[in-house]
Structures are given as structure tokens and as C-alpha cells.
Amino acid sequence: MRPQLVIVGAGPRGTGLLERIAANAPELYGGRGLDIHLVDPHPPGGGRIWREAQSPLLWMNSHAEDVTMFTDETVTMDGPVREGPTLHEWAGLDGGTFAGRQLQGRYLRWVYERARADLPPGVTVHHHPRRALRIDGPREGRQQVWLEGLPHPLPADLVILALGHLDAELEGEQAALAAYARDHGLVHLPPDFTADSDLSPLEPGAPVLVRGFGLAFVDLMVLLTEGRGGQYEGDTYRPSGREPVLYVGSRRGVPYHAKIGYDWTGDRPPLPRFLGPAEIERLRARPDRFAFRRDVWPLVEKELGFAHYHRLFTAHAERTAMSWADFEEKYTVAGDLAETQALVAAAVPDPADRLDLAALDHPLDGLRYASHEDFQEGLRAYIEGDLLRRHDPSHSADLGVFLGLLSVYGQLVRLGDIGPRWHGFFSYLASGPPGPRLRQMLALSRAGLLKFVGAGMTVTAEDGVFRATSPTVPGFCAEARALVEARLPEPTVGRARDRLLRALHADGAAESPDGLLRVDPGDGRILDGAGRAHPRRFALGPYTDARTPGAFTRPRTGGAAFRQNDATARAVLAFLGTEGADEIR
């Protein structure tokens, strides 16, 4: 019988797996036939998030030259490198363009078709435009994957879950707010992929509270302004009259930092330096469970500082007070944060050139504004300052930190579940919106259609309305009959609406302390409560404790997702080609 592989999810992760299967098959698969079944109700390549059928107003938040689905020599993996074009090379775009998501969907579809064409003879791909509901089967035997609307399951020698972002059931505060909205005729839009949200209940001219100031908010802002007929003329927004008035706040109270708007020149920092494979292995080998804040964060801080100061000393030496060799030697042996800070104070005269991660992470901490209007002016100045800095190569130490963040993320995925703090910090600093989107925020603010609430935003529901307050502006309260939670749902196993994932959890698949699906960080095999890896079930993606920044990445940055895809593809091919051959027959 021909071996059968089922991949649930045909978006960028499923496509990346297919590319790695094609790349590794000549070495690991002995020319026998193989059926690969891709299960996804959305088209292969883009999947749900990157499907071509979405608003042309929605952009990627990366430059086209910074988007690739192909490996290069910087990816640490056992499989062969198969280079391919970046998005800008494939589409013939200027590298600095922020492409629309529709175009990215077409690129991903092309990558899928190329990977499919690169498979050896006898390997056939079948797309099933349905949802997978559950997986049955013994640990040591053939699996059965049940699909929505079909009476018989797909047989599978191995199953890989590449589910991507998932919808989630509401609980706690969210469930209470939703119930209050139902009882009082209010509008409550829970965490969701913004392009899938029904925004029609948000009425023209009406105030809308928005909690969340990241990329989901940017999409919401676009769809409720340009998406309703408004237009930008330079730095001025011309309303259509159909826009609501958005009151936005979050834990930090500020938008994600803008994408850096200049190219790298000169030597890159030699990374990893203080947080590499050796440090990760020491953390994994600890007899007690490591604590992120105590054991991991100091290494992250040291690594990011090294990346920052390497760039400052090598590219802007006139702003330093000692040689890089002397600084590096002293920085390496500095034993704690206080010693490092003393060294930096002596070596870097201007405080603006020093890396202060705490201030970056919480820029509004301790700030209080006398009035709501004062805060509007203050936050507009903050955004303008961020735009200036992120587009000024004299501050290219920021780009060094960006490379450091990518390096750190590539190492931390090997630790499994490290809690949500790191992922939020990474997204805030490294995965922010294009600069033009922040300029649009400024224009909307000046037009009175976007109002800032502040940090530590809290929402209550009483007297038939939602109310939002923040300690940033004492005494201010925004009221509205609509509330939007502008963020993706938390990718927890227990709350996932995906029936397949919930069934796996009920069947004994383990979850991490933060509710993520536990997997072997080496090859993605799903773990049970005893830590045993399932020999025939794998999982990759944001709902696992080995999640990565994304399924595609910037060229020449190591591509943690690519490394994972390669390891999983090789494990699958080795099993189907050798280890599992007798069982499959």
C-alpha cells in the first residue's frame, strides 16, 4: 500500500513543509510512491490569513525584500539549501515596498505550486477543501483523519498539524463583557483576525472603544477609514462621513514601533554571542524548571545589548568614549546589570545612545497628563519621534537590536513554552507596522477620528455602556456602546474552537503551563502528559510551545521556522522511507 501523509493546514506552514519534503526526498525517500493529503478549507499557499480574497487595502507589515519562503546558508539544518526569490524579486517590486496581502497570497500560491512540481515522481499531492475534525488510531499503527462532511476518514501513516492561528472560546472577562453586550444591546467584537470580523455594527460617527494597539488595530483602523471611503491627501485625512470615532488604548498605551526604514550597511553583529546553543542546552539540562525572568531574561538582555553596542561602536564610533575592543572585553565579563550600566555610562556619553529595554517596553510608565487633549499632543509627539528615529540611519544601533531579536527568538524556540512576555515584547519592537501606517494614525488623530486612551487601559461595562480609563490621564473616561478587542485570540489548546485540537487534548496530548500544545522541540512530535513523543503525530505553529515569529521570514536571518520545517520533513521522510516501511506495508 502506498504510504499516506496528511498535513492539516495548507497555509505558509503547510507550504513550507511541502517545500522541505521536496528538498529532502531525493536523499531520504527511496523512490517509492507517496500520497500527501493537504487538508484546509482555504486555498493552498496563502491559507486563511494570507488568502487572496481579502481587502486590497491591507498590507504586509514587512518590506517586500524582507519576505522569503526559501532557505539559505544561514539556516541551521541538516537538509539541503534550495534558494528561491524573495517577494520583491518574484513580483518585480521595489524592495522597500510594503506589498498588499493579496500579492503575498499569490506569492505563497506560487511557492506551493513550485514545491509541488519539485516533488519526486510518484509523490502526489491531494488538496481536500474541508476541515479536519479528529484523529484516531493507535500510537504504533496507522492513523485515521476524519474530515467534515465525509463518512469515511483519510488513512494516514503520519499526520502533521500546521493549523496556524486559531479561533478561541471566550472566558473570564471577555465572556462577561460579551454577555453584558448581549443583554444591553451593545456591540462587542472579541479577539479575531480583523479581516474576518463583521465591522458593520460600528456606526458612523459613534464612539468605539478599542483595546489593543498592535497590528490587529492597524487593520481595523484601515478598514474603518479608507475602507469606508475616506482618503489621505498628504498628511491630511479627508473623511467620508461613514467613519466611527476610535478610542484606542492598551497595556503599553502606544502603537508598536514602526518598521525600520533604511538598509543595513557594514558588518553585522556576530550572533549568537551570549545566548546560543550552549546556553540553551544548559537551561534545558537544569534539574529544576528554569524561570524566564530569573534565568532567561538576563541572557536576552545581554545579547540585545551586545547587538546594539556592536553596531554603535563599529558604525558610530565618534559617539563612544573607548575602543570597541576594550568595551567588548569589559562587557563580556560584566557580572550583573549594575556593572553593565556603569560600563555603558562611561563608554557611551549620550543617554540617547544607550539601550534601555525597560524604557522601550513601557514608554508611558510614570507619566501623567493633566488633560485628555494634552495626552493627544504628547502621544502624537511620541509617534513622530518614533518615525524620525526609525528612518534615520544615524540610529542604526536599533537595527542591530532588531537582528539581535531575530537571533534570540531562533534560540528560545528550543526551550519550549517560555510564557507570553517574550512574544509580546518581540512583536512590539520587531514586528510593528510600516511607517506610513503611523503617519496615517497621526492624520486620523488630527482629524478627530482617532483618540488615544493611555497605558494600562481598563474596560468596564455598567449603566448600559462600556467605559475605558487609564492612569495616564487621571479622571478621563471614554464611553461607548461598542468595544473591539483588537488582537488575535490567545492560541491556547483548552480554549481553541478547532475541534481537532480539542479532541487531541482530550485524548491525552499535553499542554504547557500557558496552555500551548507541547511538542518535541527537535522535530515537532506531539508530547503526552508523561513527555512521550507520539511516533505518528506532529505539530508546528503558534499554538505549540515551540512557536516561532512566523512561517516566513527575512532572508539571511536563520529562519527558525525553516529549521523546524526541515527537521520535521526529514523525520517524516525517514519514517516513511525506512523506519515505518515494514509497518506501512
TrEMBL record:
Domain of life of the native organism: Bacteria
What InterPro entries does the annotation carry? FAD/NAD-bd_sf, HpyO/CreE_NAD-binding, L-asp_N-monooxygenase_NS-form
Domain FAD-dependent urate hydroxylase HpyO/Asp monooxygenase CreE-like FAD/NAD(P)-binding residue range list: 6-165
- Give the Pfam families listed for this entry: NAD_binding_9 (PF13454)
Q: Which residues form a coiled coil?
A: none
Signal peptide residues on this chain, from the entry's feature table:
none
The protein in question is named Adenylate cyclase
